[in-house]
Amino acid sequence: MKDHYQLVIIGAGPAGLAAATIAADHGVEVALLDEQPAPGGQIFRAIEAAPVERAEKLGPEYRRGAKLVTAFRDSSARYFPDTQVWSLSAHREIGVIHQQQARMITAEQVLIANGAFERPVPFPGWTLPGVINAGAGQILFKGSGIVPSDGVVLAGSGPLLLLLAWQYLRAGVKVKAVLDTISRVNYIKALPKLPGALLVHHHITQGLRYQQTLKLAGVELHNGIRDLQAHGKKSLESISYRHKGSKHRLKTDSLMIHFGIIPNIHLSQAAGCAHFWHKRQQCWRPELDKWGGSSIEGILIAGDGGGIGGARTAEHAGRIAAFRVLHNLEILNQQEVNHEAKQDRKWMKADLRIRPFLEKLFRIPDSMLKVPHDNAIVCRCEEVTAGEIRSAIAAGHSDSNQVKFLTRCGMGPCQGRQCSQAVAHIVADKTSIPLQQSMQFRIRPPLKPLTLGQLANLYPDETE
Amino acid sequence: MFKRLDESPLQTVTVVINGRSVAVPQGESVAAAVLAENIGYSRTTPIKQQPRAPFCMMGVCFDCLMVIDGIPNQQACMVQVRDGMRIERQHGSGV
Ligand SMILES: Cc1cc2nc3c(=O)[nH]c(=O)nc-3n(C[C@H](O)[C@H](O)[C@H](O)COP(=O)(O)OP(=O)(O)OC[C@H]3O[C@@H](n4cnc5c(N)ncnc54)[C@H](O)[C@@H]3O)c2cc1C
Ligand code: FES
User: Fold this and answer.
1) Distance between CA A439 and CA A426 in Å, rounded?
2) Per-domain boundaries in chain A
3) Exposure winner among A456, B20, B27, B65, fewest CB in 10 A?
């Protein structure tokens, strides 16, 4: 790895792969960094290594990824797998851990293509072994062919929940129930957005196909569930929930939960990029211009890290951002990039037509986001409950950073990735300060844990 | 509980999970190998000694911290298995 590149891209998912290919094909010296051992991002994880029979079970959308990865492999872009980015400054200094060594590199242009992660929604029992994210279940499936052995309950909301249920069914895994928080109200509110969504019918037909297959297989599908709780002593033994006014209990040693995905903004926050609260997607996202440019010159963001748009949109956004980079590096002029980006813009716009519908349909109930149960652990690292957070607010601590200081919530190794959203919702609920005005946790690098040895190597002169 | 799908055999390496030798596919994450072994929990929390297991599998939750080759606080979902690797549950802060 060199100390400097014209373009450094963080993340080898659809956005990063597409961007790297375009930029490299125009002669830019590109380094693509990713903490995973192989390219593909979340959606196309292990696409090169997965045995044929596994890829077959995962479905056609998964197999699409092979093309993207091949084009990237054929390009001159340098690829650095197993490489974690642990800091990013406004001056485009990038802290990386590569081959166990921490080091700093620089770039003329930086493209953040680090994707999204699953929205953490705390509820009683969600920390029990046996409860894992649905995306995590999918990572086990894609990456290792590991699936639940004694059946699984899927709960929450979002397209990924149905997709995973469908994939499990194809793999012969018993899906005991799919418990969705979607309510009638969601359907009614989503309806006006349906005509736009139907223009990108492959998404809708896919969703309907998943549902139909599940129903035909006799899987219990319930909508409008509330008050989800996980029970067990040392690990999960059963779950409970409310449905149509009555309480239900189900025995299971495996619960997979999913409440949609939210942009991974730790890097853009660390760099100091401007962010805003996006009401429809119920998350913070970076402020971007139509080329993916952030509020800081030379730092661009594409794909789900810039706002949730899905894999196809990520690919287009990656290419559009790459064209902007080509302009910034004076390789193409404005007219040329306008022309080059035209097709991707058109396809991206079409693909995004599904979003307003999905966002209304799969909206997570605010009642869940503000963590109503006092005994629910909000901070998984420091074991702080919703009740303790509410007490801190009642004692006059009226923003997230004050709550953090008082309760240690967000001070553990995950640096608030799992609790900052819930804390913001609880604060907004209790103080009536709107979410968009509420402060998020301050982010301080390193974003990934560094050992003392790695830190020492970083500044060899000073430690000699 | 988890199981492995019946797939064409892959190249394996041998790791020791809580003192037990197991063959696991090369390139797999430690967290995946540990979940497939069904050891129940992979760490206990520092404050209330509660059992935990990998939760996100993508490096964001830090619930998969384990002792790997004697070094505590390793993110098991971000580390790949290596031949001869010793993987142990982490109790509390691990130090
Ligand atoms: C767990 C999970 C599973 C999903 N499964 C599906 C699915 O099956 N089908 C579907 O349609 N959509 C799925 N999605 C949504 C889908 O991932 C996205 O729409 C799409 O992958 C976005 O592409 P991207 O290029 O923006 O980011 P991603 O594909 O997420 O790629 C981001 C890449 O950045 C890397 N990265 C992040 N942070 C760092 C860092 N600090 N240092 C180094 N590398 C870093 C990651 O390792 C990753 O490879 C899933 C999302 C998640 C979170
Ligand atoms: S399982 Fe979440 S960080 Fe490893």
Assistant:
1) 12
2) 4-117+262-332, 120-259, 370-437
3) B20
